[in-house]
Structure formats: structure tokens, C-alpha cells
Amino acid sequence: MDINLQKASYDDCEVIHEMQLRSFRQLLDKYQDFATNPGAESLDLIIGRMQQDFNDYYLIQLDGQNIGAIRVQRRPDNRCRISPLFLLPEFHGQGFAQQVIRAVEELYPHAVAWQLETIKEEPKLLYLYEKMGYKRTGKEVVIQDNMTIVHYSKSKPVR
After folding, report:
1. Fewer CB in a 10 Å sphere around the end CB: N or C, the chain?
2. What is the pTM for the complete model shown?
């Protein structure tokens, strides 16, 4: 089964917010990180990001059903940042996140590099991004005793 990325609009903000809360609930419960976890973000924050012309949101769809979303921040230096990427819990572990990463990278052929951050204490997330070619930059930010954010980057191959 293949996923499809559908460019989101203002009308999709509530749907994105609801899926985001549901998708990040387990990590929010585990780490109690209400400052940086997307599962604690308000609808107004998503609406504000949608209004910024350097942000693109995409609904992740499977057979026409919304199963998650991804936001791409486009930077003036032709670097792109993924933040966040999420799938509803029932769609985890089925290879969809890999499909999403490949698909979104193809949508931005001008990007010279990609950046993202994730939780160091979550081995499945680290494995996913490293499998997709992302490398640790060396930058880590301790959020609390049991939670560190690790930064990743992926440079586009030179042709």
C-alpha cells in the first residue's frame, strides 16, 4: 500500500491538530514534556505556521484516508527542515514513514540538505532516520534528565 501526500490548506488545520495530538500522546505521556512536544501544541500555533509562506503542510493519506501529516520548513539557503512528521499510532511500523520521507524529499528537488530533530531515547525513531540516510550533526539539547533532542542532517548527493 502506498501513501499519498496532499498539500494542506487552512481548512485542514483542525484535522492536522487532532491527528497531531493523538499521534504524540504516547510520547507526551511518557516524557511529560509540555514545552517542546507537538502533542501539547495549540491549534492556533498550527494556524500561525500555516500562514507563514516558508511552511508547507501535507496530509499523509492512505487510500484517501488521512493517517498523519508532515510540515516542511523551506529556508532561504535551500535547506529544508522536517518538523513535525507524524502518523496515527495504528499506522506505525508499516513502512509508511519511510515512504513519506522519500516522497517529501522528491517534492523539493532544489533542497541541498534536510534537517530534523528527534528524541535520543527513542531507538525506533533513531533507526528510521538513520536508515533514511540522516546523520547526527553532533548537536544535542537536553530537555530533561530522561530526554535529549538529537539533531540530524542529510545532504543531497552531488551530481
Report:
1. C
2. 0.95
Report the distance separating Cα 47 and Cα 31, nearest Å: 26
Q: Is 79 exposed, middle or buried (0-12, 13-18, 19+ CB in 10 A)?
A: middle
Joined grid coordinates for residue 52: 507563514
Pairing assessment for the beta strands 113-119 and 79-87 based on DSSP bridges: parallel
**C-alpha cell, 24:** 504524540
Q: What is the DSSP string of 91-152?
A: GTTSSHHHHHHHHHHHH-TT-SEEEEEEETT-HHHHHHHHHTT-EEEEEEEEEETTEEEEEE
Mean pLDDT per 10-residue interval, the chain, length 159 residues: 94 98 97 96 97 97 97 97 98 97 97 98 98 98 97 83
Which 3 state secondary structure label does DSSP give 80?
strand
CATH 3.40.630.30 is the classification of domain 3-155 = yes
